[in-house]
Amino acid sequence: MARNIAVGILLLVGALLIAPCAKADGVFTATLLGSNEVPSTGSTATGFIVVTLSGNLLSVDESFTGLVGGPASAAHIHCCIPVGLNTGVAVPFPVFPAATSGTYMNTFDLTMFSVYNPAFLTANGGTAASAEIALLAGLLSGEAYANIHDATFPGGEIRGQLTQTTQTPEPSAMMLLGMGLAGLVAWRKWRGGWPTLSSE
Predict the structure, then answer these.
(1) pTM given for the model
(2) Domains contained in the chain, CATH given
(3) Which CB contacts under 8 angstroms, 24+ apart, belong to 108-116?
């Protein structure tokens, strides 16, 4: 009987903790600097980006200040290549502010064909689904970077390698786990013993 209870609790805990991690959800951050560009630009500008992946949605929150090469002309996520090398654009940031300092926020539906740079789509199977798989693999392996371009630095003035931050289980999963354990304790008090998982 005690063994059945232990197995039941372990299965409940495992299901609740694995469920939020079933997709490749995560938060990726980078500090954008001129010294991160390849080759280095020597720019004193700085920036910071947070990329949040939730299911098929990719949210971008970026801030930057002090571009010395003029107002930003474009900003992107580039993928997929090891640190220290350059590669093409995977996800362009539409309507990025044409300014030397500013902020940008947008959410991209990764199932949409229009989210991706055409060359990235072609190089990765030609469909939004195959492009999404390639982008997620690049993000998770640390082979994606964000940068901001301007007229003086058309290849990018500041850049940062996107790295995944530590993740914890979602609060909803922890709440469900707590409710399940509280229910087991209440059952024991009410019935005078632990519930059994019948093998019949």
Answers:
(1) 0.72
(2) 1-24+168-200 (no CATH), 26-166 (2.60.40)
(3) 108/57, 108/58, 108/59, 108/60, 109/56, 109/57, 110/56, 110/57, 110/58, 110/135, 110/136, 111/56, 115/58, 115/91, 116/90, 116/91
- pLDDT (tens place) for every residue of the chain, 200 residues total: 454 444 445 444 444 444 444 345 899 999 999 999 999 999 999 999 999 999 999 999 999 999 999 999 999 999 999 999 999 999 999 999 999 999 999 999 999 999 999 999 999 999 999 999 999 999 999 999 999 999 999 999 999 999 999 654 444 445 555 555 555 555 566 566 555 555 55
Question: For residue 122, what are its two tokens?
Answer: 């072609």
SS3 sequence of the chain? CHHHHHHHHHHHHHHHHHHHHCCCCEEEEEEEEHHHCCCCCCCCCEEEEEEEEECCEEEEEEEEECCCCCCEEEEEEEECCCCCCCCCEEEECCCCCCCCCEEEEEEEECCCHHHCCHHHHHHCCCCHHHHHHHHHHHHHCCCEEEEEEECCCCCCCEEEECEECCCCCCHHHHHHHHHHHHHHHHHHHHHCCCCCCCCC
